[in-house]
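Q: What would this chain look like folded?
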Amino acid sequence: MVKVLFDHNMPPVIARALDVLIKSDGHEAYALRDKFPINIRDIDLFEALGRERNWIFISKDVANASRKPERAALLRSGVLGVYLAPAIQKARINEQAATIIWQWDRILNQRMNNANGLFLLPLNKGSKFRAI
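A: My prediction, written as structure tokens:
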């Protein structure tokens, strides 16, 4: 079982819709604001997720992946970070959701095959996840 947390920069409706779709397989999805205080620092967030294990963090904030303190905290925590590629970020909400759902099995595989990491979610199903 995995748990997915959608960052504040992601529409909460995507997290809630994904939760309905994946719950039957024992997985859970949350909007950050539904699980943690709205003002939680990224480093504190990753530490909290790391204590629970098997988390996937989905965000549009690719810059977060390059900021040394946040990047180190995420990698240290064992959380798998999945960041939307710029082309997906520019898409409408329904297209962002469709891409995440379309890629869901591959996102799960990334979680199962990696102790941690930061990856760019590809737009096309045939494209590979790129470590960032």
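The mean pLDDT is 94.
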